[in-house]
Design goal:
7-stranded mixed sheet, 4-stranded antiparallel sheet, mainly beta
């Protein structure tokens, strides 16, 4: 059974940092693009960051560019999201996702995690 499990969410003050992890099991994702999305209450799920299957290319939403960094460790089947300079508007449930090869910014991904809550207080 394929699973993506996020961890690392929590409550942090504005300006602080968090590091999210997404561990995959059930298959290898070495040839899969990995991404992070987020969904705030009453809003649609939105693309945050993505990384190509080899890790050579990364993509970011304008709202997080320069503050968030996505990375992956294929040996561990894990993708990370380092979030710095957090703002209250970053508050959301963060989901990791995977799809073959190419990063896309829509939600058409094959696999999803259950989500982890990130709350940024002002």
């Amino acid at each position: 059974q394929v699973q993506l499990v996020e961890s690392g969410g929590g409550l942090v003050q504005a300006g602080g940092s968090l590091r999210l992890s997404c561990a995959a099991s059930g298959r290898t994702f070495n040839n899969y693009a990995r991404a992070w999305f987020r969904q705030a209450p009453g809003k649609e799920r939105e693309f945050v960051a993505g990384i190509s299957w080899r890790g050579g290319s990364t993509y970011y939403a304008d709202s997080v560019k320069g503050r968030f960094t996505i990375s992956r460790d294929n040996a561990k089947n894990t993708v990370y999201l380092q979030m710095n300079s957090l703002k209250p508007e970053d508050t959301a449930v963060y989901y990791c996702a995977a799809r073959p090869y190419a990063v896309i910014v829509t939600t058409a991904y094959d696999y999803w995690g259950q989500g982890t809550q990130v709350t940024v207080s002002s």
